[in-house]
């Protein structure tokens, strides 16, 4: 079997080590064409293609390396790693398990198998593999860091923080570990520490886009300062500039074409708040001259995905595609109006919008502030959440839906509404099913004053992180310091969606936190007959509850300040007749409200989109 000459092999390795990947690709392609059994050539070709963003070609080369090596453990592990990145963790698991069967003491194989299990939500198996990797190579910082991710997703924040710190001990410049520390402290409500660690991650890697995304979500939600937020949002756009290789200036369009081609980019076409608010209106859009295309950025699918898929004329996955490849796919579909449904939340592809693959681009539904990307032309809201006088807070132009910017979909579960629990308990139960990180000092202080004013009343909190002893203790101590005994606080972890809805039967009144209030949880509460007390605010995010309240006919449940919030809570708790009548009427009233009229919402949505297109130059 003839192999390349030594100087060709040396040149190939030198190109790769010097990160001259284009030269490595050219030479590796030449050598593997001339010497098809040159395994090292296939490995270098695959790795170099990956670093150049050519993932699909990289996988082809990796498969060649596996075939030509007849099952080399390193080649199998490399292929598995690429399959994880391409969004195919199930196939990755098969490849990496073969690698480990051939050689069980490779820490990288156990690390990658753990990552694949993590992607498929097999957390205990992922934990096992990361621990195996650490046992072989204790200084492997990536294994410690991803072990922390497992613990965080299992709700064990204190264990997650210890694992992240262990990763940083091994590598003081490990930006991802600092980033994940930020996430953990964010969940603990330690927002100053979260911001510190996100910025540390950005100091180490200025183009760390996920750190920008999380920093912006943090600033927008917990300590919103419009100028500070917009400065950081624009910094994000500057950071992606060097990665945007071109911008489209021409599109294959006919201005008079009917129906109008509208695309939606999201990682949340599933059981997720975006999916819940999207599902109801999708089935009606085809009635109003809209041809809709889905561009999914997440390989995870579920029952909701299956239900909504049929409403789209075309369903495409952007998973594993580079930003340029994703932009080319959207552009080739001749999309006229393209919607971002994520903003800076998980699975977003905002950087694709910077390529301007569609002539009109709009952000809507999945986020609550400016994207900072000027190629996104509009932000779609309503008169409550995005008043026109706030236009200086956005790089986008504000556009309004006539009524609500949200359309709540009837849940797939038929959960009966039970009478208010005060009738059996003899005391009122307030509740909040929002993330506990939203319970800042002013929220806890306000709620404590309500509880102190109503003897024997209780507060029922439900969130996944309340199963973490550190978080549970922190919450109980916080309220105890404000005069509320532990026995008056009920803590509960997350549950299946059907059980989550049933839990609303355990509370009389929902208290929405502020300034980061409830959106989906508020609508869910109303569906279960439980009124929601919300605080009006001065930002998009703090006004979502206000929009939901007014559009469901419950404007009198909006408080204007903390004093008004306390007064309304106390008066409502003492008005038993009204609590009983609301329990009986809320669901039927909601079904007739602007918040749930899916056909009217689809008509309004189409009108807004068509109007923007008609006015497009």
Task: List the topology elements.
Layout: H1 6-17, H2 21-34, H3 39-51, H4 55-69, H5 73-85, H6 89-102, H7 107-119, H8 123-136, H9 141-153, H10 157-170, H11 175-187, H12 191-204, H13 209-222, H14 226-240, E1 260-266, H15 273-285, E2 290-296, H16 303-309, E3 314-317, H17 323-332, E4 337-340, H18 350-353, E5 360-363, E6 378-381, E7 397-400, H19 422-425, E8 429-432, H20 441-453, E9 458-462, H21 469-480, E10 489-492, H22 497-503, E11 509-511, H23 520-527, E12 532-535, H24 540-551, E13 558-559, H25 562-574, H26 576-591, H27 598-614
Parallel strand pairs: 1-2, 1-4, 2-3, 4-5, 5-6, 6-7, 8-9, 8-11, 9-10, 11-12, 12-13
Description:
- The structure is a single chain.
- The chain is 53% helix and 9% strand.
- It starts with 5 loop residues before the first helix and ends with a helix.
- Strand 11, helix 23 (520-527) and strand 12 (532-535) form a beta-alpha-beta unit.
- It has 617 residues and is an alpha/beta fold.
- A seven-stranded parallel β-sheet has the order 3-2-1-4-5-6-7, covered by helices on one side.
List low-pLDDT spans: none
Overall shape: it is globular
**What's the gyration radius in Å?**
26 Å
User: What's the overall average pLDDT, rounded?
Assistant: 95
Q: Oligomerization state of this entry?
A: single chain
Q: What portion of residues belong to β-strands?
A: 5-15%
Spatially, the strands of the biggest sheet line up as 3-2-1-4-5-6-7
Distance N to C terminus:
64 Å
What structural class results from the helix and strand content? alpha/beta
Work out the number of β strands: 13
Helix content: 40-55%
Count of helical segments?
Answer: 27
């Amino acid at each position: 079997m003839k192999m390349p000459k030594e100087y060709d092999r040396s040149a190939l390795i030198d190109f790769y080590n010097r990160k001259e990947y284009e030269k490595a690709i050219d030479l590796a392609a030449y050598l593997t064409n001339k010497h098809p059994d040159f395994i090292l050539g296939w490995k270098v070709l695959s790795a170099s293609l990956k670093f150049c963003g050519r993932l699909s070609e990289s996988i082809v080369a990796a498969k060649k390396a596996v075939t030509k090596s007849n099952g080399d453990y390193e080649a199998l592990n490399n292929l598995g790693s690429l399959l994880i990145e391409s969004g195919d963790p199930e196939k990755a698991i098969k490849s990496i398990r073969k690698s480990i069967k051939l050689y069980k003491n490779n820490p990288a194989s156990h690390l990658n198998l753990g990552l694949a299990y993590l992607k498929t939500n097999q957390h205990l198996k992922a934990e096992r593999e990361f621990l195996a990797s650490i046992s072989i190579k204790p200084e492997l910082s990536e294994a410690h860091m991803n072990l922390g991710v497992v613990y965080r997703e299992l709700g064990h924040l204190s264990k997650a923080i210890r694992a992240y710190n262990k990763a940083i001990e091994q590598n003081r410049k490990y930006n991802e570990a600092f980033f994940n520390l930020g996430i953990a402290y964010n969940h603990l409500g330690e927002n100053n520490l979260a911001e510190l660690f996100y910025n540390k991650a950005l100091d180490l890697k200025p183009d760390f886009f996920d750190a920008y995304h999380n920093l912006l979500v943090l600033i927008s939600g917990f300590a919103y300062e419009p100028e500070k937020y917009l400065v950081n949002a624009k910094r994000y756009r500057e950071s992606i500039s060097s990665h945007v290789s071109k911008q489209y200036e021409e599109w294959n369009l006919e201005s008079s074409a009917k129906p109008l081609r509208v695309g939606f980019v999201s990682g949340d076409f599933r059981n997720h708040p975006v999916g819940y608010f999207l599902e109801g209106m999708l089935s009606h859009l085809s009635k109003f001259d809209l041809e809709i295309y889905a561009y999914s950025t997440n390989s995870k699918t579920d029952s909701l995905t299956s239900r909504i898929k049929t409403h789209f004329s075309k369903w495409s996955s952007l998973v594993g595609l580079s930003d340029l490849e994703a932009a080319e796919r959207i552009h080739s579909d001749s999309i006229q109006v393209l919607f971002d449904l994520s903003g800076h939340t998980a699975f977003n592809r905002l950087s694709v919008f910077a390529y301007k693959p569609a002539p009109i681009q709009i952000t809507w539904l999945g986020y609550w502030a400016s994207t900072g990307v000027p190629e996104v032309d509009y932000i779609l809201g309503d008169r409550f959440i995005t008043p026109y006088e706030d236009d200086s807070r956005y790089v986008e132009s504000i556009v309004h839906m006539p009524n609500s910017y949200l359309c709540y979909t009837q849940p797939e579960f038929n959960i009966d509404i039970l009478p208010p629990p005060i009738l059996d308990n003899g005391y009122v139960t307030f509740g909040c099913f929002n993330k506990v990180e939203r319970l800042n000092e002013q929220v806890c202080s306000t709620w404590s004053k309500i509880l102190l004013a109503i003897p024997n009343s209780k507060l029922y909190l439900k969130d996944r992180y309340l199963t973490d002893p550190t978080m549970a203790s922190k919450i109980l101590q916080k309220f105890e310091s404000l005069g509320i005994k532990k026995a008056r606080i009920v803590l509960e972890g997350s549950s299946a969606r059907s059980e989550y809805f049933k839990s609303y039967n355990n509370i009389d009144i929902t208290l929405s936190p502020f300034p980061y209030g409830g959106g989906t949880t508020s609508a869910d509460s109303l569906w279960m007959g439980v009124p929601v007390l919300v605080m009006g605010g001065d930002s998009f995010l703090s006004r979502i509850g206000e929009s939901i309240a007014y559009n469901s006919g419950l404007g009198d449940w909006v408080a204007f300040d903390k004093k008004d919030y306390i007064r309304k809570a106390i008066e409502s708790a003492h008005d038993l007749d009204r609590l009983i009548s609301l329990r009986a009427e809320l669901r039927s009233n909601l079904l007739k409200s602007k918040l749930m009229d899916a056909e009217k919402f689809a008509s309004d949505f189409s009108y807004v989109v068509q109007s923007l297109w008609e006015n497009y130059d």
